[in-house]
Write a structure and sequence with these properties.
about 80 residues, alpha+beta, two-stranded antiparallel sheet
Protein backbone atom coordinates (compact mmCIF):
# COMPACT_ATOMS: atom_id res chain seq x y z
CA UNK A 1 0.00 0.00 0.00
CA UNK A 2 2.82 2.38 0.85
CA UNK A 3 4.46 1.87 -2.55
CA UNK A 4 1.13 2.27 -4.37
CA UNK A 5 0.39 5.49 -2.50
CA UNK A 6 3.84 6.82 -3.33
CA UNK A 7 3.09 6.31 -7.03
CA UNK A 8 -0.52 7.48 -7.38
CA UNK A 9 -1.46 9.42 -4.25
CA UNK A 10 -0.53 12.90 -3.12
CA UNK A 11 -0.80 14.86 0.10
CA UNK A 12 -4.03 16.47 1.21
CA UNK A 13 -2.50 19.89 0.56
CA UNK A 14 -1.57 18.93 -3.02
CA UNK A 15 -5.02 17.37 -3.49
CA UNK A 16 -6.65 20.69 -2.58
CA UNK A 17 -4.66 22.70 -5.14
CA UNK A 18 -7.00 22.15 -8.14
CA UNK A 19 -9.99 23.38 -6.10
CA UNK A 20 -8.07 26.39 -4.86
CA UNK A 21 -6.83 27.16 -8.35
CA UNK A 22 -10.31 26.86 -9.86
CA UNK A 23 -11.80 29.18 -7.27
CA UNK A 24 -9.16 31.91 -7.37
CA UNK A 25 -7.40 32.20 -10.72
CA UNK A 26 -8.49 34.62 -13.48
CA UNK A 27 -7.90 32.15 -16.34
CA UNK A 28 -10.62 29.78 -15.11
CA UNK A 29 -13.72 29.87 -17.27
CA UNK A 30 -17.31 28.88 -16.69
CA UNK A 31 -17.66 25.12 -17.02
CA UNK A 32 -13.92 24.46 -16.70
CA UNK A 33 -12.85 21.45 -14.70
CA UNK A 34 -9.47 21.47 -12.96
CA UNK A 35 -7.59 18.47 -11.64
CA UNK A 36 -4.12 17.06 -11.17
CA UNK A 37 -1.92 17.20 -14.27
CA UNK A 38 -0.34 13.73 -14.15
CA UNK A 39 -2.97 11.29 -15.46
CA UNK A 40 -5.51 13.30 -13.44
CA UNK A 41 -4.37 11.59 -10.22
CA UNK A 42 -1.49 13.73 -8.99
CA UNK A 43 0.54 16.79 -9.82
CA UNK A 44 -0.03 20.50 -10.30
CA UNK A 45 -3.48 21.80 -11.29
CA UNK A 46 -4.40 21.87 -14.98
CA UNK A 47 -7.57 22.09 -17.03
CA UNK A 48 -8.85 18.54 -17.54
CA UNK A 49 -11.85 16.85 -19.13
CA UNK A 50 -15.09 15.97 -17.40
CA UNK A 51 -16.70 12.59 -17.07
CA UNK A 52 -19.95 12.14 -19.00
CA UNK A 53 -21.89 12.16 -15.71
CA UNK A 54 -20.40 15.57 -14.87
CA UNK A 55 -21.89 16.95 -18.10
CA UNK A 56 -25.46 15.91 -17.23
CA UNK A 57 -27.44 19.14 -16.77
CA UNK A 58 -30.46 17.34 -15.30
CA UNK A 59 -28.29 15.65 -12.66
CA UNK A 60 -26.66 18.98 -11.85
CA UNK A 61 -30.09 20.56 -11.33
CA UNK A 62 -31.16 17.69 -9.01
CA UNK A 63 -27.95 18.06 -6.99
CA UNK A 64 -28.38 21.83 -6.70
CA UNK A 65 -32.06 21.56 -5.74
CA UNK A 66 -31.33 18.85 -3.19
CA UNK A 67 -28.50 20.88 -1.69
CA UNK A 68 -30.76 23.91 -1.30
CA UNK A 69 -33.50 21.80 0.25
CA UNK A 70 -31.17 20.06 2.72
CA UNK A 71 -29.29 23.20 3.79
CA UNK A 72 -32.22 25.61 3.74
CA UNK A 73 -30.10 28.06 1.72
CA UNK A 74 -31.56 29.25 -1.58
CA UNK A 75 -29.79 31.25 -4.26
CA UNK A 76 -31.66 33.33 -6.83
CA UNK A 77 -29.64 33.96 -9.96
Amino acid sequence: MKVGNAVVAQSDAAGALPQLYASTMPDVGRGDYWGPALAEVRGAPKRVGRAKAAQDDAAARRLWDGSERLTGVTYRF
